[in-house]
Amino acid sequence: MRQIILDTETTGLDPAQGHRIVEVACVEMVNRSLTGNHLHLYLNPDRDSDPEALAVHGLTTEFLSTHPRFSEVAHHICDFVQGAEIIIHNAAFDLKFLDAELQRVGRPAFNTLCGKVIDSLLHARELHPGKRNSLDALCERYGISNAHRTLHGALLDSELLAEVWLAMTRGQDALIMDFGGAETQSGNGVQLERFDASVLQVLSAGADELAAHEAYLDALDKAAGKPCVWRAQAAN
Fold this sequence. Notes:
Elements: E1 2-10, E2 21-30, E3 33-42, H1 51-57, H2 61-64, H3 70-81, E4 85-88, H4 91-104, E5 116-119, H5 120-127, H6 135-141, H7 154-168, E6 183-185, E7 191-193, H8 207-224, H9 229-235
Parallel strand pairs: 1-4, 4-5
Antiparallel strand pairs: 1-2, 2-3, 6-7
């Protein structure tokens, strides 16, 4: 399964007020492994960022003026996400900006380009109701270092979100070890090894351990005033 962890930075909060994307990053993950392949673009928005937004990402108008406009790189973004499952934290925010930018250059809505969009914020809220579920809070919860995150940046945030997503969705499958059997495909696309119980080593209890077990059962019988459940079942 090919997944893309995506993040954007913008000039403000609402594309309906003329705000634009100034940075977009896409980090690729295949079968729950980061591939090292990513797309990272700074964009010239042809306007200033709101002071509040500038304080978040630190991308000045002067710096961004040297980079391409969205219309010049839209095809790169569309090609990179094509058919993939997209993971975005607070997806509604990024999607409204992506859709506005794509509409501006005559391209279809973002969710028509990819297989599926997953909002990691909604997933985190289901796992941790009533708790803070910002990216920083999730990094702290899952023991992921974000000490180098002094400003928000789309690439860094995407890389952190990839680690958070793997931690949030890591289930029992992660404990299955390779015993040399045939591979199977799990529901989320992870390659798993077929479990063979016959290779497990069986250790029998020793005489001292058996005596200790019988003494423990004697104590249970005495406390209950009748044979404990293990002895009652053995007698049947």
